[in-house]
Amino acid sequence: MVLLRYVLPGAVVLGGLIVMSLGGESELEGGAAIVSAGLAIFFINWLFRAGVAGESERDREDQAREYFDRHGRWPD
C-alpha cells in the first residue's frame, strides 16, 4: 500500500519535474500537467482513506447505540 499511496505519486511528480527541466515552453507545460497528475493520484488516495475512516466511526457509533438499546446506558 505504501507503493500505491506514496511511491507512485512521488514517481509521477518526479517525472514531471524532470520533463519540466528539459527545456522549452511546451516541456514546461507538459511537465506541469504530469506533476498535477501525480498530485491528483496522491489526493484521491487521501480522500479514499478519509472516507474509509468515516465508515469505521459510523460503525463504532452503531455499536454504541446497540449497547445503549440493550443496557439502557451509553458505553464508556
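^ that was protein a. below is b, sequence first then the C-alpha cells
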Amino acid sequence: MEEITKDIGEKLRKAREECGLTQKEVGDYLGYTPMGISHFEKGIRGLKISDLKKLADYLKKDLSYFLAGSSTLFRADSGSPHQAEMKKSVKSFEDFLNEQNL
C-alpha cells in the first residue's frame, strides 16, 4: 500500500506543478496545510478518495490519472494482457464516484 500512496503522491506533485500551483494553493482548496500537501506528495500520508476526486477535478485530470498505471495497485505489470480491462475497471470506479458526487 505504501508504494501506491507514493505513486499517487508523485502524480499529485507533477499535476500540481503542471498547473503552476503551489502546495499552499492546493492545501487551501482542500483544507490542508502546505505541509499536509507535502506529506501527500511524498507518500507519507494517504489521501481520502473524496479528496483525490476533488484534486482530480481541481487539477483537471481524470481520477484514473492518479490510480491507473500503478502496477502495485493492480498486481500486474504495464505489459499485462489485462491492462485494458484494468483501465476499464478504473474508469467504471471513477464513473461511480462521479455519480456519488464525492
